[in-house]
Amino acid sequence: MAATMKDLSRETGLGLATISKYFNGGVVREKNRLAIENAVKKLHYVPNEVARSLKTQQTRVIGVVIPELSNAFITSIISSMEDILRKQDYAVIVCDCRSDPKREKEAVEFLLHRRVDGLINMATDATGAHLKAALNANIPVLLIDRLVESLRGKVSAVVIDNAHAAGQAVRKLTELGHRKIGLVLGSPNLYTTNQRLTGYLNALKDAGITPTEEYIRYGNYTMDGGYQAVSDLLKLKDRPTALFVTNFEMTLGTMLALQHSGIRVPEDLSVIGFDKLELFGEIFPDLTLIRQPQLSIGREAANLMLDLLMNRDAVSHRIVTLSTALTEGRSVRACADG
Amino acid sequence: MAATMKDLSRETGLGLATISKYFNGGVVREKNRLAIENAVKKLHYVPNEVARSLKTQQTRVIGVVIPELSNAFITSIISSMEDILRKQDYAVIVCDCRSDPKREKEAVEFLLHRRVDGLINMATDATGAHLKAALNANIPVLLIDRLVESLRGKVSAVVIDNAHAAGQAVRKLTELGHRKIGLVLGSPNLYTTNQRLTGYLNALKDAGITPTEEYIRYGNYTMDGGYQAVSDLLKLKDRPTALFVTNFEMTLGTMLALQHSGIRVPEDLSVIGFDKLELFGEIFPDLTLIRQPQLSIGREAANLMLDLLMNRDAVSHRIVTLSTALTEGRSVRACADG
DNA sequence: TTGAAAGCGCTAACAC
DNA sequence: GTGTTAGCGCTTTCAA
């Protein structure tokens, strides 16, 4: 079927070694170079990466295991990673495990069979059990967004300082006199959820505020969840005067819920959102929000993985913590409450 | 490093053929089966798909080339495809070409080097030039969402009946007496844009309505674009009384724009949206919309690809056209205009 | 610089 | 049922 190097060899009269050297950037006599190039064209030769992988023992494939493909923050990271990795001739196999630990483990095994050179994972299974096989196989593992306690020291990671980010937002609100601050979190027991809750509680404590349980809601990191959570908060007798919402989809849901209810921002309620994604465009130019650098997360992850792939001997595992920024908008104002 | 079949052979005293047969579902003597299973455990043997690929001349990898990873409709399709393909032990390499024909072509070449067994493409380059190499390589090519004229008869495809879908929506509106119907399209010159425009124009024609150029807007298939397009439509002196918006993101943008402007739906304006994605949840339960079966698109595409992979000789190229449905909500009412 | 030859880990005749 | 063996397409010593 497809032409092989052997065909090139026959066509040019050159040895396989010469042809191989030509393709791998070696020095080849001008005359031979031309002969090879002609043969390539004539025979429509295309290098076979599979054979090369078998020989070199590296596939130039990175496996990426994520909880959900239908999440703008995640696809934004993947997009930025994939871009960089492909430029370095690495392919990305994406496995969506639908936030199911069983599927996640299967995905890891699937990827190991395919001999991926490295694994990037936004972990669903907080115990990290699914990554044991990858660690055994001695391939670099890189966590993104979520740390896994049991893997500390064994893997690298790229995360943001969630507690700090949440603290930043909540402090902003307490400084403006808000004491009744609603919090819309993701799913319970996720690393990011816990960290952001911690940041919230610390900031309240610093302001001498006792947390109110019914102000803390779980919106499951979905638009719908955010919508529901905020709708519920609005039904409270003693409504919060301010809201901190902890991801993009839920922020969208929040804004929709508020608009549906005719609540004005910030006149009636102060709001701090989370994540500024392209999808947002210029729709909420006035929203005060915590920005996660998702493009940088993707870039850092890709580059860190490339690093790990280069220096396989260096056993140093790095945890890169990126900082978030509070973008000032006009969705926050001083508390009017007595 | 990793154990190979040779190691299993040494460990069990069996021949390579037996071991291979065991892994490929052949019949092996009970005693030997156990011996192999023990050896697998003991040596942590993991089959090497790379070697298998080289030998069998199939990688069990499908390349997927898409214009944007940050689009809910697209990720929804990919998610459903990937699910099915992985269950059949096919891996998916996703390449996001950022709607850039040059990148798209590079992605196809990248995938061909890796000897993917098949290619699924939501085409950016409407000329189809980027797929020539894939066709030459004689691997199955499957288009989704967008047909490419020059490739008719050469590739399979899974699409929806865009013109019909748009016609359905617009007819609904004209039947209710609307004559001033705004249309929010995606990017100019895309297959889906053109088809949906055609459906709109035909439906208007059927109702004896002369199209008004300024009612036809391009929102680029983004939330922001939809928001802008609708904002512009609202500024018109002679506003439309109804709106048909042709994708999910733009529908979201539309609803936000309307809510910002205090326009009530359907009291002040009738709206028909597009796509019902999970992300939506129950936020707009009352929205009348055209539903594209994105999960079915993914499923059909995956299964069709698997089919093509099985019957490589059958040169029959199928175009599967899935139908859309109009979901009745309460965002549409009879035209109040004199 | 170039060529011959071995071998990466697996599958599949083929012979037993 | 099982074992022997050739070979998938490439890289890489090693010797010329």
Explain this structure.
The structure is a homodimer of 338-residue chains. Chain A is 43% helix and 16% strand. Chain A folds into three domains: 5-43, no CATH class; 61-160 and 294-323, Response regulator (Rossmann fold, 3-Layer(aba) Sandwich); 162-293, Rossmann fold. The mean pLDDT of chain A is 93. In chain A, the strands form two sheets. Chain A has a six-stranded parallel sheet, with helices on both faces. Chain A has twelve helices and twelve strands. In chain A, helix 1 (5-12) packs across helix 3, helix 5 (72-87) packs parallel to helix 12 and helix 8 packs parallel to helix 9. With 338 residues, the first copy, chain A, is of the alpha/beta class. In chain A, helix 7 links the parallel strand 3 and strand 4. Chains A and B meet through helix 4, helix 5, strand 2, helix 6 and helix 10 of A and helix 4, helix 5, strand 2, helix 6 and helix 10 of B.
Please summarize what this structure is:
Chain A is α/β, with parallel strands linked by helices and 338 residues long.
